[in-house]
Amino acid sequence: MSELNELEKTLVLAAAEADSGHQEPVEPAETKPEFYKNLTQPERTTSSPEPDTPSNPNPKKRTRDSLEDSPPAKCPSTYSNVIANHYNQLEEKGIQERFKSRIVYLRNFHNWIKSMLINEYLSKIKTNKKQYNAAIRVHDMCCGKGGDLSKWKKGGITHLICSDIASVSLEQCRARYEDIRNHSRDRQPLFTTEFIEGDCTRVRLREKYSDPSIGLDLVSCQFSFHYSFESLPQLECILRNAAECLQPGGYFIGTIPDAYELVARARKHGSQTYGNDVYEVSIDFDVHKPPLFGAKYNFQLDGVVNNCPEFLVYFPVLVKLAKKYGLRLVRADKFQDYFERMKEEGMHLLRNMRSLEGFPPPESCRLNGSEEDYEHAKEYVGKDSRRNVLVGTLSKSEWEVSSIYKTFAFEKMKRVSMKEDGTPIFEI
Ligand SMILES: C[S@@+](CC[C@H](N)C(=O)[O-])C[C@H]1O[C@@H](n2cnc3c(N)ncnc32)[C@H](O)[C@@H]1O
Hints:
The chain contains 14 helices and 15 strands. The chain is an alpha/beta fold. It has a single domain, classed as Vaccinia Virus protein VP39 (Rossmann fold, 3-Layer(aba) Sandwich), CATH 3.40.50.150. Strands 3-2-1-4-5-13-10 form a 7-stranded mixed beta sheet, sandwiched between helices. The protein has a 4-stranded antiparallel beta sheet with strand order 6-7-8-9, with helices on one face. The chain is globular, with a radius of gyration of 22 Å.
């Protein structure tokens, strides 16, 4: 059996072991037909609804010309400062420190997922460009400290807009970019950049672009989109930011926690708080009646105290509302399914990025987790008749975290006409 198959099998095994309760989708309480009606009939909705109680989006009749051109939604000031402060205060850890972390392979594995997702959609964009070497313009929305800069470099893009609410992270991103540029020995010039500090759930970012008429090919929002589900106006605002400068055929991609998974685990454990030695989720809403917006929970990873609230992303609402902004869902995959689909193509990168832990560990090394965390790998190796079989895996605890997440990709539709009231109509 090839090494490739071994890796696959072991990871699949880990997934099965860490079965996180694949249950029937959990329907939030407020999937009211009127709400959907309003989402499907843009002319009857408002771009600035009443500050919502999550269960009552309370749409009013729209007064502005078009959904895309309406002003940023007004929403109550709630958690944005808390979130910005949290990220501003995060310590910048060196590579050595990061490598000692209990969740080093989990972080690397998530980085691999992001790399594969970015490559997948950059490849589609390049294929669709008629002109060889055509410019590729990207917006890394909620870019953080610039963890994806090297991915953009490898992807050969032309221009990158980096935006984030946390000024300290954005400065670190800028410094990282300068560092890459100063150390770049490539003959090809590195992509150009612009950095925008702002809350993408409350501010129209286009007004801050150096060229507001820019046509973007890709908008990427990694591990951040869920912050927008605090309220309907915030979701509307981020969707408009994602969509309005995308060219038809361009993509909006990202990674988010899967609401079904978070709620199903709470129900399975019969508790608002659950987790293992590397993560803990504390849910702040009724898991039997989750609201559409503002379903707040706390996600703590690797024992780091975290008072930063996160919000459940109810995916069907995202898909419905995205259509209003001309975004059509292309696909969404749980991380384990995305891995299944991409593992062969990404096997080389998986190794290079050290995204899996070797089992059994080499003599001089210790396992990252406890012995029980590798029972699945032990069992697998034990069943193999060959001697000295080495497999790549994630510890069960880390896999339980990874299997919470999913990828998504939307494509920007062509705007074909406009209703009398200015509502755009997109090609389906
Ligand atoms: C988990 S980090 C992810 C950073 C980066 N995308 C990555 O994958 O490495 C989440 C980021 O989202 C940013 N963020 C959260 N809410 C935001 C908002 N409303 N507007 C802009 N950025 C936001 C945070 O400041 C933080 O940098």
